[in-house]
Structure formats: structure tokens, C-alpha cells
């Protein structure tokens, strides 16, 4: 099994005719992803690497079964693109775009919740179930199929941890980058619940960072509900200066809130193994 995506997942790419959209359409096809359509207003009738392009999601949906959408449009266009996907009940929406206005992200999150669809991102590399499928922009060759699930706020650290695991002969079930923005469609607890029921996943790695309360909420969930699988966590940004944003829009410690120390304390109290380095992460993930 896997979570969120599998070999049968049928994907559309909103923004497929753009430079990045076209490039990643090709890369997804090379990974044997079932990309059924692209969507770019005014480009209906074109094709990208053999994939038909439609003006709207509704037009694509009339011709194809769709399980997921990858949104790769400029920040100002994300809200309308996401609204269109939500209104057409696309079950999984992955928003790659960075610098999406927070207000727009809030609207998207609330709309998705009301519609019963799942949003990953914004500001994410997406989701991959190695050897099966991906809805994202990660290089598939550094990931390998196995039994370790990864939940991460950082795309770069998702790559690094997965590639290091692969090098050590440890494969992954599904890797989910929830994104680095303050407002996310899906957070740690949501993915932990999915991994809990996934027979392929034996161990879960959480890669957190300073800012926000997602890691503390995950610790609270594990502490209150219990968790049947081993969880190993790493928190990035321990030495970040207070008040200075580090990389992601959501990675900032302000007025003592969102510190690495607070996150580590909460995770430890929940019985989660917290490591100091990525090398140590590899050593305890067996």
C-alpha cells in the first residue's frame, strides 16, 4: 500500500504549458506517472509532451477521470486555480508555488475542508510513493520503495533524508512534504493519521523546523491517542536568531513562540525519538 498516491493515480497539471509546468510534466511522465491532462486557460487544444491541454479543469474532467492536480502557476494565479480544482472535487490538490499570499492560502484551506478534498502545500515539492507514482517535482531516482514514511516541512530535507536512506538501503513508503508556509492545507497530524493505517509503513520520520505549532500538535496527538509505530523526529533551525525568518515563510521564532526547544520538549514528552543530526536519524531508522 501507500498513502495519497499510487500507480493508478490519474493526474492533471494546472500550468502545464509554462516553462516549469512543461518540464515537470516530462519528468512525471518519465517516472511513469499517469498524467492525463494539462490545464492552461487559452491553451486548450495544445499538447505538452503528448499530454492534451484544456482551458479549464471542468473541460479536462469531462474527458478524463482525475484523482489529483498539481498546481504550478504564479502566486497571483494560485487562488483561482485551486478554487477551480476544489469546485470540481479533485480529491488531491498539490500546490507547488511559493509566495502564495497568506490570505489566499486561508481561503483555499477553508474551501477544501468544506468540499472534502485534500490540499498539500503551498510551497511544497509534493508527494511521492517511490516505485508507484508522484504528484510533485522531486527527482524520483533518489527515492526508493520501502517501509519508512516521511513527513516534512522542508523539500530540501525531504530530498536529503530520502536519498541518504536510499543510499543505506532503506526504502520509503510515501514521502509527504507538507510545505514551509505558515498556512498549510495538510499538517503533521493529518499525515500521521494516514500513516497509522498504512500497512506498508513501519516507521515514520518527522522533519520539522522552527515556527508554528504543527510539531507540538503532532506530539499532543501521539500522547493522547497513542501511536502503534515508531516515530523519529528532527527539528531544523535550533540556532536561528529570534525574529529572523529562516528560509521558509513559516520558519520564524517570535516572542518565544515556535522555538526548537519547545518542539523537542513536546515530542520527547510524547515518547517520540528526537535526534540532533541527520546522521543520527539514519542510525535510529532501522
Supply the number of helical segments.
9
Task: Provide the gyration radius in Å.
Answer: 18 Å
Give unreliable regions as ranges: 250-256
Instruction: Give a short account of the largest sheet.
Output: 7 strands, mixed
What is the helical fraction, as a range of percent? 25-40%
As a percent range, the share of strand residues is: 15-25%
Please give the CATH architecture of the largest domain. Answer: 3-Layer(aba) Sandwich
> CATH homologous superfamily name of the largest domain?
Succinyl-CoA synthetase domains
- Summarize model confidence as the mean pLDDT: 93
Give the number of DSSP strands. Answer: 14
Can you give a write-up of this model?
Heterotetramer of two alpha and two beta subunits. Residues 4-100 form the CoA-binding domain. This protein is α/β, with parallel strands linked by helices and 286 residues long. The chain contains nine helices and 14 strands. It folds into two domains: 10-120, NAD(P)-binding Rossmann-like Domain (Rossmann fold); 126-284, Succinyl-CoA synthetase domains (Rossmann fold), CATH 3.40.50. The strands form two sheets. It has a seven-stranded mixed beta sheet with strand order 3-4-2-1-5-6-7. Helix 3 (75-87) packs parallel to helix 4 and helix 7 runs parallel beside helix 8. The two termini are 19 Å apart. The model is unreliable at 250-256 (pLDDT under 50).
Amino acid at each position: 500500500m501507500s498513502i495519497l498516491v499510487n500507480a493508478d493515480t490519474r493526474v492533471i497539471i494546472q500550468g502545464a504549458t509554462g516553462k516549469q509546468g512543461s518540464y515537470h510534466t516530462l519528468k512525471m511522465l518519465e517516472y511513469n506517472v499517469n498524467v492525463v491532462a494539462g490545464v492552461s486557460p487559452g491553451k486548450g487544444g495544445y499538447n505538452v509532451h503528448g499530454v492534451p491541454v484544456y482551458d479549464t479543469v471542468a473541460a479536462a474532467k469531462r474527458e478524463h477521470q482525475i484523482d489529483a492536480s498539481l498546481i504550478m502557476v504564479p502566486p497571483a494565479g494560485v487562488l483561482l486555480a485551486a478554487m477551480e480544482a476544489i469546485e470540481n472535487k479533485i480529491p488531491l490538490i498539490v500546490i507547488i508555488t511559493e509566495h502564495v499570499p497568506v490570505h489566499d492560502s486561508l481561503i483555499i484551506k477553508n474551501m477544501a475542508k468544506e468540499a472534502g478534498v485534500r490540499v498539500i502545500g503551498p510551497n511544497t515539492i509534493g508527494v511521492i510513493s517511490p516505485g508507484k507514482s508522484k504528484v510533485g517535482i522531486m527527482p524520483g531516482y533518489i527515492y526508493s520503495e520501502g517501509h519508512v514514511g516521511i513527513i516534512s516541512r522542508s523539500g530540501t530535507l525531504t530530498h536529503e533524508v530520502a536519498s541518504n536512506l536510499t543510499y543505506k538501503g532503506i526504502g520509503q513508503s510515501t514521502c509527504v512534504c507538507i510545505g514551509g508556509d505558515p498556512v498549510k492545507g495538510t499538517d503533521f497530524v493529518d499525515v500521521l493519521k494516514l500513516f497509522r493505517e498504512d500497512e506498508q509503513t513501519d516507521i515514520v520520520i518527522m522533519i520539522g523546523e522552527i515556527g508554528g505549532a504543527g510539531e507540538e500538535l503532532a506530539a499532543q496527538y501521539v500522547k493522547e491517542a497513542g501511536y502503534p509505530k515508531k516515530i523519529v523526529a528532527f527539528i531544523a533551525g535550533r540556532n536561528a536568531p529570534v525574529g529572523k525568518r529562516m528560509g521558509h515563510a513559516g520558519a520564524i521564532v517570535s516572542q518565544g513562540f515556535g522555538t526548537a526547544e519547545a518542539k523537542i520538549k513536546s515530542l520527547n514528552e510524547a515518547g517520540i525519538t528526537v535526534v540532533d543530526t541527520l546522521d543520527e536519524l539514519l542510525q535510529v531508522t532501522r
